[in-house]
Specification:
By secondary structure, the protein is α/β, with parallel strands linked by helices. The chain has 17 helices and 19 strands. α2 crosses α5, α13 crosses α15 and α13 runs parallel beside α16. It binds iron/sulfur cluster. Iron/sulfur cluster (SF4) binds next to α4 and α12.
Length: 462
């Protein structure tokens, strides 16, 4: 019987139906980090339970890591305590941990795919909202809370309600200067930040099929910002080529056998969906948020909505009918699990090469992982950014969340390649965040204000 990837993977991992009506779902891969796990490990200890599958559990340190120096002990006592607790818990449980000084360290949603841990047909859980990122490789990946982290550590299972599946079809070619980030901001704008509640989002269509895995990760990453618990793209030859040769991917004959199975997990041609929506890629423009949730966005050339949300406008300092284009910025941040990958840095470097950051702008480049940083340095991108006046930082979440020393101050306006523009998200209660693509952030850093990256790209060879 034809079916969607979501149902195939769900059914393959269903242990039983619980008396509550929920499904007990086996979790193939559990990714952990320092913020949502200390209490979960404490709860295990209180019950005298052991970690059920340490070989299916992997840990990294990302949210609290300072990016200017990763020297221990961290100056922030609480950050040092969190990192030390994770080190202790992983050592006791036999869980591999990529500590701040390890070559594999990085943001949990960057290193999982990078190391080949994330694979098609898997169920994945992590105590972080943006776990949906891993769906870019055809996994169904759930962001979970601390008590669920405890459940997965103790049993490798989750109790979950089934989801409906919405097929989001994007077709056609993106214009120059329009990126995956613009696609997902446009999807969230149209469907709403609550539009995906109760759904898994399956992204497809010719636009998605032409995208790299990095681009698909940017799309899947922000599914949760549209209310969807899960977002995924069906695995295809692009997926398999990405995984071949990665440290934790199968190798040799096992890789070929895995590909045969991975292919079968993809949604069937005549699969039935609970809902379908379509987008025309050629109509999507560089997009920026103007408000305090990721659905409050406009095309850069467009005035802000006619039916404005007063609270959001007042907080951000915009008037109805105003344009975001031309807004003076104080900070430019390129990084995060949404847009901190090598391809993001390459595109940003193309824009800043030969230019200088505006004197009033503090500009940060924060690679998503140590591997991204190494590869960027091998390609000379670090020097491009440094020459332009950017700060070249170590890997971590940095100013996406501000749980580390990288924070906005006062009501600074930030052009950010991250995923959330909630009040206070970047570390200052009054700090303001404009979400956009890394290329748009790079262009804003140079201009000192929000500009249309397409104008800058006119002078850059394709
Ligand atoms: S980069 Fe931001 S969204 Fe991603 S894991 Fe870190 S804090 Fe969460």
């Amino acid at each position: 019987m034809s079916d969607t990837l979501f149902h195939k993977v769900w059914n393959a991992h269903a242990v039983r139906t619980l008396p509550s009506g929920q499904t007990q779902l086996f979790v193939g891969l559990h990714l952990v980090h320092e913020v949502t796990t200390p209490q979960a490990f404490d709860m295990l200890r209180q019950h005298g339970w052991r970690v059920a599958f340490p070989d299916r559990t992997f840990a990294t340190v990302d949210h609290i890591v300072p990016t200017s120096t990763q020297q221990r002990p961290f100056l922030d006592v609480m950050a040092e305590e969190m990192a030390s607790a994770l080190e202790r818990n992983c050592r006791d449980a036999g869980i591999p941990l990529w500590a701040p000084d390890n070559d594999n360290q990085g943001i949990v949603h960057v290193i999982g795919p990078e190391l080949g841990l994330t694979q098609p047909g898997m169920t994945i859980a992590c105590g972080d909202s943006h776990t949906s990122t891993h769906g870019a490789l055809g996994a169904i990946a759930f962001g979970i809370g601390t008590s669920q982290v405890r459940d997965v550590l103790a049993s490798q299972c989750l109790a979950l309600d089934p989801l409906k599946v919405r097929r989001i079809e994007v077709t056609g070619s993106l214009g120059r200067g329009v990126y995956a980030k613009d696609v997902i901001l446009t999807i969230i704008r149209r469907l709403g930040v609550q539009g995906g509640v109760g759904y898994a989002y399956e992204y497809g269509g010719s636009t998605l099929e032409a995208m790299t895995i990095d681009e698909r990760m940017t799309i899947c990453n922000m599914s949760i910002e549209g209310g969807a618990r899960v977002g995924y793209v069906n695995p295809d030859d692009t997926t398999f080529a990405y995984l071949r040769g990665r440290p934790f991917a199968p190798s040799g004959d096992a890789f070929d056998r895995a590909v045969a199975w991975w292919r079968q997990t993809a949604s069937d041609q005549n699969a039935v969906y609970d809902d379908r929506v379509a987008f025309d890629a050629s109509a999507i423009e560089p997009t920026v948020t103007w408000g305090i949730n990721p659905g409050q966005s406009v095309a850069v050339s467009e005035p802000i909505a006619a039916e404005p949300n007063d609270e959001a406008l007042a907080f951000m300092g915009f008037r109805p009918g105003a344009r975001v284009q031309g807004t003076r910025i104080d900070v430019a941040f390129i990084g995060s699990c949404t847009n901190g990958r090598l391809s993001d840095l390459e595109e940003a470097a193309r824009i800043v090469r030969g230019h200088r950051v505006a004197p009033h702008v503090k500009a940060l480049i924060v690679p998503g992982s140590r591997a991204v940083r190494r590869e960027a340095e091998a390609r000379g991108l670090d020097q491009v950014f440094i020459d332009a006046g950017f700060e070249w930082r170590g890997a971590g979440c940095s100013m996406c969340l501000g749980m580390n020393p990288d924070r906005l101050v006062g009501n600074q306006m930030s052009a950010s390649s991250s995923n959330r523009n909630f009040k206070g998200r970047q570390g200052s209660p009054t700090g303001r965040t404009l979400l956009m693509s890394p290329a748009m952030v790079a262009a804003a850093a140079i201009a000192g204000e929000v500009v249309d990256v397409r104008e800058i790209l006119e002078g850059v060879p394709a």
